[in-house]
Design brief:
Helix 4 crosses helix 5, helix 6 crosses helix 7 and helix 7 crosses helix 8. It contains nine helices and eleven strands. It is an alpha+beta fold.
């Protein structure tokens, strides 16, 4: 429970009185999950959680089965704030790695938010940050470097694999990867060699194993910290 309190006291939640934060723990529970586990499915009852460990992805699913990742969620991040305010969200949440999250009692949380202006304001700020995440995803589709697009595509492919494997593996060859990110095979081969040298991936014919998913997720494009390049 202490970990959940510490996570909530970060960022915009720092202004929320500690007594209020401690009261939010009442009725909650810690849920552990394995890699590939579906943490939340579209239209399920509202759930609100703070991630204590692991990496998760939030994605949308089309009628023909295609997936688009909306957001990657790391330790200390909140899940479900927009749904808490507006109802069940049209997204799925899947664990990329094993980990755990603290799930709050939704009714208790709503009552606290209605009675505490600081908590209500923190929820409003959190919702705005989620909007900014979406804007960054849209911008990343245009501005991301080839390296960043490769990192994103490998994470998406590996996370979308059927459950049952202990390793995070993307089944893709260099040419198909180049086609998917809008580059050429020679550039993809060079970037994969860089990722291998940095111990982010291990490659074999037609397969790329992601060795450090959390560090790999930090390769994704961000307006505040764009460190990529465009060969």
């Amino acid at each position: 429970m202490t970990g959940a309190i510490e996570a909530l006291r970060r960022g915009c939640w720092a202004a929320v009185p500690i007594a209020t934060i401690e009261s939010l723990i009442d009725g909650g529970r810690i849920v552990e999950f394995s890699s590939g586990h579906m943490v939340y499915a579209e239209a399920e009852p509202i759930a609100l959680a703070v991630v204590m460990q692991g990496l998760l992805r939030v994605y949308m699913l089309t009628a023909d089965g295609r997936q688009v990742t909306v957001r990657y969620v790391r330790s200390g991040d909140l899940l479900g704030v927009p749904a808490l305010i507006a109802g069940p969200a049209p997204v799925f949440v899947q664990a990329v790695t094993s980990g755990g999250a603290f799930f709050f009692d939704v009714g208790n949380f709503k009552r606290a938010a209605r009675n505490d202006a600081a908590l209500a304001w923190a929820l409003a700020e959190e919702s705005v940050h989620r909007l900014y995440d979406i804007l960054e995803e849209l911008a990343g589709n245009t501005f991301a470097s080839v390296r960043q697009r490769i990192a994103r595509h490998l994470l998406d492919l590996a996370a979308a694999r059927p459950r049952g494997s202990r390793t995070l593996m993307a089944s893709v060859n260099q040419q198909d990867l180049a086609n998917s990110v809008g580059s050429v095979r020679e550039v993809v081969a060079r970037i994969l060699a860089e990722l291998r040298a940095e111990q982010l991936v291990r490659t074999s014919p037609g397969r790329v194993e992601i060795l450090d998913p959390v560090r790999m997720s930090r390769e994704l494009w961000s307006r505040a910290g764009d460190k990529g390049y465009s060969p």
